[in-house]
Amino acid sequence: MAQVPRAVFVHRQSALQQLINRHGTYNQGSFFLSNKGLSAKSMVAQNDTVQDALALAGASVPPHWRRGTVERGDLDRFLFDEHDVVVVVGQDGLVANVAKYLDGQPVIGVNADPGNTGVLTRHGPDAVERLLHRVEAGTAQCELRTMAEARTDDGRTLTALNEVFLGHPSHQTARYRLATPDGRTERQASSGVLVGTGTGSTGWCGSVQRERPGAPRLPGPTQDQLVWFVREAWPSPTTGTDLTQGTLDGAATLSLTVESEGLVAFGDGIEADRLVLSWGERVDIGPAGKRLRLVV
């Protein structure tokens, strides 16, 4: 007997919900903002828009399907299974947040606000019913987006859709020895190392690349290539600045051997979910074995 699919809706707390959590009630939160010359009306409108999108998308689930819901803050405790179809309702960043917890499940990105056009959340809530039926029938078109992975020499791993960052969490100087796939090495002191995908090229990596003359071309989102940048490398008698950017083709990895305490590696800006690194550990960063399966 075939397993019944499950539609899993992923969302995040709205600014209104965060305001109420902080102040206890809406009235107290609204009073706090009014004393600063601000209004909660825009928060209410944004919250209503998201809730309407969730309701419309939720009503599109076929009657025989199972369903589930998870808030962004609970993703690391939610158990996805192979028969899930993940419906992300929100902005592009929410797709990146959930991608690391998936392994081939199709993802439908739903833009809750028609005023914000997304690259990953490209569908309106009214398209969900049609897309769910296509997924069930096996006719949905999917884009396989490259992801990045950091792997320590003791076997711990971390994946990311946009980029992996290695450095100090408080932005102190990070010290390490960097080794490129072609065998070049350099001891460095910097603000950290950024390894990004084609999806991440529209974000952090794109900002770095635009500010650097001669920076490598950014890859496409489905291209089997990553790009890497060293941030603010500092020259000294023991550290260099020659190896500060490049690309990783195919299965090539960038290797870093940690030479200071307190360094971390995290993906897609989620510092809470990170690898804590200590002196002497080696981290290899390259393309992940899995990809985001985005329904287009």
Report on this model:
There is one protein chain. The chain is an alpha+beta fold and about 300 residues long. It folds into 2 domains: about 5-140, Rossmann fold; about 145-290, Tumour Suppressor Smad4 (Sandwich). Helix content is about 20%, strand content about 35%. The protein is built from 6 helices and 16 strands. It has helices spanning about 15-25, 25-35, 40-60, 90-100, 130-135, 205-210, and strands at about 5-10, 65-70, 85-90, 105-110, 140-150, 155-160, 165, 175-180, 185-190, 195, 225-230, 245-250, 255-260, 265, 275, 280-295. Strands 1, 2, 3, 4, 5, 6, 8, 9, 13 and 16 form a 10-stranded mixed sheet that branches. The protein has a 6-stranded antiparallel sheet with strand order 12-11-10-7-14-15, with helices on one face. A hairpin with a 6-residue loop joins strand 14 (about 265) and strand 15. The chain is globular, with a radius of gyration of 21 Å. The two termini are about 30 Å apart. The mean pLDDT is about 90. Keywords: Kinase, NAD, NADP, Transferase. It catalyses: NAD(+) + ATP = ADP + NADP(+) + H(+). This is NAD(+)/NADH kinase. GO terms for molecular function: ATP binding; NAD binding; NAD+ kinase activity. It comes from Yinghuangia soli.
Keywords, separated by commas or semicolons:
21% helix, 6 helices, globular, NAD+ kinase activity, NAD(+)/NADH kinase, single chain, transferase, NAD/diacylglycerol_kinase_sf, 2 domains, NAD, 296 residues, Rossmann fold, 6-stranded antiparallel β-sheet, alpha+beta, 16 strands, Tumour Suppressor Smad4
